[in-house]
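Design request, tokens follow.
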């Protein structure tokens, strides 16, 4: 009896597939990547046509051994990793390792792919295997080599010129540049004033609104009315014209409204709104961000779970197709199933005569792939609610609705546009719409939480040309233009995709890296660059402009795609990139760190007459009074949250040097002050410290509030104190990991064979004497927290290399 081995990537997938294939197949998981570039210089050798040196991924070494052992016993091997470039590369790496071990030389090895984990899809794939695609493998190798060459050469340069722990990436760095440039646009933005004028109207007891469209025969643009005087003058003349048309003179009709407008045009149209295409990776990330508030990483993780399979009561089954795809194509079987569901649930009238077809925008989409869809359209979300987590259910519901809606009829919307005149002075326009047939909007509408929510924005009463409509009020309103918004995850993904930078399957990892490197922070779900992110972008745009250029990055993506299609060889592509890149790296080794970290001059300190500057150091952004060349040492102060070296002003900078703030004394005569230390802002009373709460500010906290924190601290200490000697100089305390003894500087554990309550003063002192000195420069934990120990020492060290 023949025995075949099937190798997939994840153990969750392996269990489901084993159930579908039966006893003649053994299914094993590779647990993702089995081999990667060696983690040292020379992993890619440009001198040897970019020869790549690999080693087994350490965490998967035992699994590779197990796969090799199972392969030795198998009659045939099926490589069934994911159906994308990366999956193809994993299969190739597996085969290379198995060949090295001599376990596949005499047996057939097949490559199989399936885009959904269902019985039919898996059996179909096994029956129609293919060979490994050299083109896809070459494309993936080229990407990996490029990422290595950029990261391994550019990141160390950032460490030397800026600070350690930084990284640069072929796609990561242009993405960061986008965020930084948007922030600069926001900072440089100058608001412009403009005014709108709206008319409040009523007909048949139905109120509606008209917006000023023409004034004195000219079209009203955004800045036609740009100050209060112009708005008041226009309003006065409009009201006069509206009253005059009604036959009133000046001062007549007071208290009876504001006159009338006459209907000069009524235009009725019917428009169609078509459903959105099935999800691809990027649009799924965008919609899940907008509607579900999921991060890109969260979306991909949950989609992976739905793809690999969920136990629905009758066994584990994959609920959606493969979630890394650029294609909006749907199989004929899927379309047939969707049309059946639509007819059954929504009626035959909601079905178009022919299936809706969608064009894939991505240049290199593989049409053999499908859009992201349910594996079985009849598996409605409600039927799975008891088997899915809340997040799984919400994402499946989103995918199901989007897919069903894409094969439904268009929505039909009746629109009405009405022009209303105030004599020859002005014309207003009122618009309204009603949904004649919601079509697909009964199920799903892109970007709207409530399908059809924006289709009934305004409903106008019946109006006819020549009618006079009562004007109940005229509302001139002041506005100011707003800066472009910061990028959200959804808009950043969309912009990267529009530029052709990176691939949707990598966006989640790119965003995660930007946050992990502290290049950006997420505030109100919008990206804001940190000072570190700004400095890195400044360095790269000034010295490696080509490699963070959007068009260059997109063209390189196109060339990598051409490799995957077999249109070009991968070595020349790498050579064309590497030679000028390596030359630039060598050239920029000579750039001094002081040039890269050049301080931003803010002005002069009025007290000392010394220059004040803002800069980024090894431990974060700070301001400095004086220079290293001065006889007196410079003074330093860290920036507060929300402050930036690019925008901080002189007064803000000088305010940072007001710490520590003297707040007087406690009732028992201890000096009281507020400061910021290594572990955050605090109040100091004598030699003890009380941390400030979230809403407290060390720059503004008053004595009364400081004393409240002191009392809270004392009460907390009292609750934790087991024994006290020498007026509190030596105490036995309750700790997180058990009781301990402290003299305010050193700590000693209470011996396990002693009760903390029974220790004598001499025993406690002896244990403290034997305790090791506290770690760190400048003495103990408390001393460093005050800002006079480790924290201050660190800042001094920072200045010497800045």
């Amino acid at each position: 009896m023949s025995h075949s081995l099937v190798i997939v990537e994840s153990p969750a997938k392996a269990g489901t597939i084993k159930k579908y294939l039966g006893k003649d197949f053994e299914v094993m998981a590779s647990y993702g990547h089995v081999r990667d570039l060696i983690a040292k210089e020379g992993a890619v050798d440009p001198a040897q046509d970019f020869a790549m040196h690999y080693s087994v991924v350490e965490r998967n070494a035992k699994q590779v051994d197990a796969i090799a052992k199972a392969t030795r016993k198998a009659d045939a091997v099926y490589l069934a990793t994911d159906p994308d470039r990366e999956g193809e590369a994993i299969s190739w790496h597996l085969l290379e390792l198995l060949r090295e071990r001599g376990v596949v030389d005499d047996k057939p090895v097949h490559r199989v792919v399936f885009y959904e984990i269902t019985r039919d899809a898996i059996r179909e794939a096994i029956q129609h295997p293919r060979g490994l695609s050299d083109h896809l493998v070459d494309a993936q190798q080229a990407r990996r080599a490029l990422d290595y060459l950029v990261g391994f050469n550019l990141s160390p340069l950032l460490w030397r010129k800026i600070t350690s722990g930084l990284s640069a990436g072929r796609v990561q760095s242009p993405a960061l540049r986008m965020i930084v440039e948007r922030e600069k646009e926001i900072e440089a933005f100058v608001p412009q004033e403009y005014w709108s004028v709206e008319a409040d109207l009523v007909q048949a007891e139905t109120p509606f609104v008209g917006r000023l469209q023409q004034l004195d025969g000219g079209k009203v643009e955004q800045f036609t009315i740009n100050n209060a005087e112009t708005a008041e003058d226009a309003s006065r003349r409009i009201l006069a014209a509206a009253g005059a048309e009604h036959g009133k003179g000046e001062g007549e009709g007071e208290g009876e409204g504001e006159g009338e407008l006459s209907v000069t045009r009524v235009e009725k149209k019917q428009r169609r709104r078509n459903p959105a295409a099935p999800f691809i990776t990027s649009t799924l990330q965008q919609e899940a961000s907008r509607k579900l508030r999921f991060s890109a990483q969260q979306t991909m993780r949950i989609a992976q779970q739905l793809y690999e399979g969920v136990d629905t009561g009758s066994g584990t089954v994959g609920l959606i197709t493969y979630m890394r795809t650029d294609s909006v194509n749907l199989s004929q079987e899927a379309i047939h199933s969707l049309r059946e569901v639509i007819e059954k649930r929504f009626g035959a009238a909601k079905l178009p005569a022919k299936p809706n077809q969608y064009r894939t925008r991505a240049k290199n989409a593989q049409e053999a792939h499908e859009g992201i869809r349910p594996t079985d359209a009849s598996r409605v979300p409600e039927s799975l609610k008891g088997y899915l987590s809340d997040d799984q259910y919400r994402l499946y519901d989103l995918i199901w609705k989007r897919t069903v809606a894409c094969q439904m009829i268009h929505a039909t919307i009746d629109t009405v546009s009405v022009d209303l005149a105030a004599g020859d002075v002005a014309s207003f326009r009122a618009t309204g719409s009603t949904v004649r047939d919601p079509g697909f909007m009964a199920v799903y509408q892109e970007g709207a939480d409530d399908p059809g929510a924006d289709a009934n924005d305004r409903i106008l009463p019946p109006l006819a040309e020549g009618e006079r409509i009562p004007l109940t009020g005229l509302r001139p309103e002041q506005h100011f233009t707003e800066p472009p918004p910061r990028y959200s995850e959804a808009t950043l993904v969309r912009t990267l995709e529009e530029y052709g930078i990176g691939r949707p399957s990598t966006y989640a990892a790119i965003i995660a890296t930007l946050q992990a490197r502290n290049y950006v922070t997420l505030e109100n779900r919008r990206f804001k660059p940190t000072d570190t992110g700004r400095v890195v972008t400044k360095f790269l745009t000034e010295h490696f402009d080509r490699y963070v250029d959007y068009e260059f990055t997109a063209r390189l993506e196109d060339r990598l795609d051409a490799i995957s299609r077999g249109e070009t060889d991968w070595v020349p592509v790498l050579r064309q990139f590497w030679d000028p890149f390596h030359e630039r790296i060598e050239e920029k080794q000579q750039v001094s760190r002081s040039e890269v970290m050049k301080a931003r001059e803010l002005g002069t300190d009025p007290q000392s007459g010394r220059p004040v500057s803002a800069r980024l150091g090894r431990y974060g952004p700070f301001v400095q009074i004086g220079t290293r060349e001065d006889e007196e040492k410079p003074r330093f102060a860290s920036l507060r949250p929300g402050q930036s070296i690019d925008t901080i002003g002189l007064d803000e900078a000088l305010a940072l040097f007001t710490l520590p703030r003297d707040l007087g004394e406690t009732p028992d005569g201890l000096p009281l002050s507020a400061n910021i230390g290594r572990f955050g802002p605090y109040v100091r009373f004598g030699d003890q410290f009380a941390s400030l709460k979230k809403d407290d500010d060390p720059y503004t906290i008053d004595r009364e509030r400081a004393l409240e924190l002191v009392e809270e601290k004392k009460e907390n200490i009292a609750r934790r104190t087991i024994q006290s000697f020498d007026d509190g100089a030596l105490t036995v305390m309750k700790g997180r990991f058990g009781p301990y003894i402290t003299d305010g500087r050193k700590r000693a554990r209470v011996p396990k064979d002693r009760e903390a309550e029974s220790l004598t003063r001499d025993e406690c002192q002896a244990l403290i004497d034997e305790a090791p000195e506290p770690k760190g420069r400048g003495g103990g934990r408390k001393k460093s927290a005050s800002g006079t120990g480790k924290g201050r020492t660190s800042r001094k060290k920072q200045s010497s290399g800045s």
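Comment from the thread starter after seeing the answer: thanks! DSSP finds 23 helices and 31 strands in the chain.
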